[in-house]
Amino acid sequence: MVDLDHLPLPEPSLPTPRRKQRPRTKYERFDRDNSKFQKDRLNELQLLKKTHEKNKIKFGNYLDPRLIFKIKTNQYVYESNFRQDLERAGIQVLNSSTANPGYWIAFSNDSEFKEFKMKLQKHHDDDRYKYFLAIDEIVPIPVDEKIGRSLNIDQLPEMGFEFLDVEVWRMEDSELDQFLSGFENWLKENNCLILDNLITINFCILRVRISKRVLNEILALNEIALVDRPPTLEVESLLMQPIEKEQIIGPPNENCSSIAILDSGILKHPILEDAIKDYIKFDDDEEIGDHSGHGTSVASICLYGDVEKCIRDSRFEQKIWLYSLKIIFKQNKNRGNEYNKLLENRLKELVEKTIQKDPNCKIFNVSIAIPHHILKNDVVKNFNLAVLLDELAKKYNIIFVISIGNNTQLPDSNYPDHLLALEENRLLNPASSALSLTVGGIVSRLTRIDSIDVPSPITRVGPGFKGMIKPELVEYSGGGFGNESDVIIANAESVGVIEGRPFKLGKGTSFSAPRISHYLALLRNQYPFYSSNMLKCLLLSSSRIPIQRPGFLSEISEDDTETNLMKLLNVYGYGKPDISKALYSDNYRVLLIKESKLQINSYHIYEINLPQDVFDEYETLLSITLTYDPPIRKNRINYLGVAMEFHLYHNLDMDDLNSSLSADIDKEYPDDEIQKIDIKKNEIMLKPGINIRKKGVHQKGIRIIKPHEISSNKPLLLSVVSRDLGWIENVSYEQDYSIIVAIEQVNNLKLYNAIKLRNRVRVRS
C-alpha cells in the first residue's frame, strides 16, 4: 500500500458573520394562587434572613457571611435573561442549574430583600415581572448536599485532625478574597489550617487540616459548596510474566515529540532510560522513584505502543521523548507533605512547569482515576479535576489522554450486558473532561477461526458529561479472559535487580490510554505544526467500531436507532484507531483536511468535487470528523461556550444552501436544528445523528453508500456551523476547528488521483 499525503480541503465560502440577538424567555403562566405564592416566598425570605443573622453573630468577627440560597425554577428559561431579571431584583446568580428547570444558586447583598419584595408585590398586584412565574421556591442549601460521597462513606473520627478538600462557591474575585482571608483567620483560631488553595475561573478549592467539630460548624456557612476527603487515585494491579531483554535503539532524535506522563513516576528501566527527557518535580526535594511501578509500565506503552511487537521483532526503536510528572504517592499513615497540597494544584503546576520547560510538549497521558467520582445521572456539574484539564487544554493548546477507569463488577455469565446494566460502571473523574480524549478498553479474544476485538469486561462506559460521546476511542487494555488477553508492559520490579524480569503482563484501561498517546506523538512527529484539534481529528477519522461484536452489541448496526446506537457508542465510542490511516492517505482512501476559524453564529460551506461516476460502481465509506476547543464554564447551564455541527448535502446548489443557513443561523438556541426543512431531502444522513454528535467537541459521522444510492452530478456541500450558547461576551470571538472528509472505496485504485485532480486548492484573491 502506497503512503500518500492527505489532501487539503478547498477553501470554504465565507458569508458575513452575524451576531444574533439572544432570545428573550417567554415565561409560561401556571394556574396558581398568587396570594399564596407571595406569602410563601415572603416566609422563605424571612427564614433565610434568620439563618443569615445567626451566621453573622457566629462568624462576624472574622468575615462577612454571604446570604447564599437556592432558587427552584419550574420551567425552561434562557440563562442570560433570567440572570438579568434576578440582578435587577437585587439577586446575583453564582451557579446556573444545568438541569433546566432546576435549582439555581444565588446570593443577595441585601438581607432585607427590599428590591425583590417590591417587585414581588407588583407581580401580585399588577401582574408585572413575569420571571416570578418561573420561580417555585427560595430555600437554604441543605447541609447534607455539602458533604461529598467519600466523606459520607468515611466520616471523620470524633477526635483528632484530618485533611479535607473544601470547595467554596466561585464568587467575584474581591468577594472571594475577602471571604478566604476571614475564613482562614477563623480556622486558625480554632486550631485548623488552610494548607493549599486553587482558584480558577471555574472553581475555588481549599486543602484544610480540620477536626470534626470545626467541620460541623463550617457546614453552616453558605459560602461552602462541598466538603470531601482528598481524592485517592486508582492504580490497577499487574500480573507477572518473564521475557528476555531485547535490543534498544535510542535515544530519540532531538526533534521527536514528547509525552508527559502524569502518574506514579518512571524508573530508569533499560528500555526507557534513554528516552526520559526529564523529571518534572512539584518540590525540589521530591524523590523521582516509582513506588507502585504503574507509571513505569504506562511509560513503556507511551514510548513503544505495542511492547509485545517490539519483543517479537527484537527491536525497541525510540521515536518519542518522555517526561515524568509524579502525581501519585505511596499511601502512609503519617500522610506526608503531598497531603498538604491539592491534587488539582499539583497537577496544574506540573503541567505548567512542563510547558515552560518544553513548549512543544503537547501530549499529556493521564492513566489515573478517582474511584468514588462516578459520572452518574445525578451529577449535574462536571468534576473539578475534569474542569481543570479542560481549562489547561484550552489555554495551552495541549491534549490530555485519559483512561476511562476500571469497573469492579464481576460479569460472570452476563458479559457484555453487565457493562451497561449499572450506573456504577460509568466513567470516573477526570474522564468526563470535554476537551480530552477518553479511552476505553478492548481485548483481543481468540475464536476457533481467528481473534476478534471485544470490550474488556473491566472497562467502564459512557456517556460523558451532558450526554457527550465518551469514550471517544478504545484500545487494548487486557483483563477478563485470562493471561492470554492481557498486555505486555515494562516490569518496574526488575530495575536494579540482577537477572530481573524486564516485562510482565498487565490489565486495565490505564494501558489503553497510553497507546492513544503514542499514536498522537507519532502524528506530531509527522505533522509538527498541526494544532491539537487536527491531531485529534486525524486519529478520530481513522477509527472504526469493530464489525464482530459480542452479545447484544452485535445486534446494533451503525445505522440503527439513536437509542440503540448510543449503547454502542457508550462502550466503543468511535472505535479503535488505525495509526497508518491517520498518518497517510492511500490509493483507496482519501482524506481532505482543513484547519480554520469561525466566528460564532456564522458558518462555512465547503465544496467537495468528486468524479461524476464516483458513487456508481463501488461501495463507498464516507465520514466527516470535526474537532474544536471552546471555552468552558462549570457554573453555567451550557458547559461549552460554543456549539458546532456539520451537515453534508448532495445534488444541492450552493445558493440554496447559503440562503437556508442564513435564515436558520438566527433561530433560537439551544435545541433548534440549524437547517430548513426544504433541504432535508438533499442531506446525506450520517450516523450517529446530529442530536448525538453535537453534544460534544469530538464529532464524527459515517455513512456506507451503496452504488447508485446518491447522485454525484453536483459537488457535495459540507456546512460547518458555529453557535453562541449564551455566555461568551466577546463579540469578535473566533472558534478554531479542524474538519476532515474521508472517502474510501476498497476496490477503486484510481480514487486518490481522481479526487486530487478535482479538488485543487483555490487561492483567494
TrEMBL record:
Q: What is this protein called?
A: Peptidase S8/S53 domain-containing protein
> Where in this protein does the record put region Disordered?
1-33
Q: Where is the Peptidase S8/S53 domain?
A: 258-575
User: What CDD domains is this protein classified in?
Assistant: Peptidases_S8_Subtilisin_like_2 (cd04847)
Q: Which organism is it from?
A: Candidatus Nitrosocosmicus franklandianus
Which SUPFAM superfamilies does the UniProt entry name for this protein? Subtilisin-like (SSF52743)
Q: Which GO terms describe its biological process?
A: proteolysis
* Gene3D superfamilies registered for this protein in UniProt: Peptidase S8/S53 domain
Q: Name one GO molecular function term.
A: serine-type endopeptidase activity
